[in-house]
Amino acid sequence: MEAWPTVAWMLLMTNAADWLKTVQSRDFSITDIIRLHPSTTPHPGGFKCFTCEDAADNYECNRWAPDVYCPKGQYKYCSALHVMDNHGASVSVTKRCVALEDCLLPGCDDVPDSGHQMCSSCCEGNICNVVVPRNASSSIFSSTSPLASSGRRFLPAPLSYYIMVMVMVISTAGHF
Question: Residue 16's CB: how many other CB atoms inside 10 A?
Fold first, then answer.
């Protein structure tokens, strides 16, 4: 019996093992998040959100997100807006710091005339918008502080306006 099939098999398995070691995950780990958020902040209560505009997918957004703190004041939440095609593949991802008014209508909706679905979510906390919403179950508003402390009633007009603008941009993009 010849030894060359055994040797060839061993070389093939060695190359496959080396190839598997070089494959990188497209998800962020806890270590990545800790590295992104140092213990000092520019102002009391300062926090960061992943921030990108029309990234190709969640990985590209998180990978190239600017490492800056949200402005002090009304911006107290992080949002994620995810547009997917009819197969669930990402078309665009937009993440940013937002005010409470922009978080009052999380959820998913179909984008007319494009076959796309748009899901939005909001959260409170440091770089809490690491994942994107993919369905109604993950399109939520998660808050760590009570929202009923204010006697004012907020209207969701800014979020509605933002969604309408995104729908128009996406629907006209296919006509060029």
Answer: 9
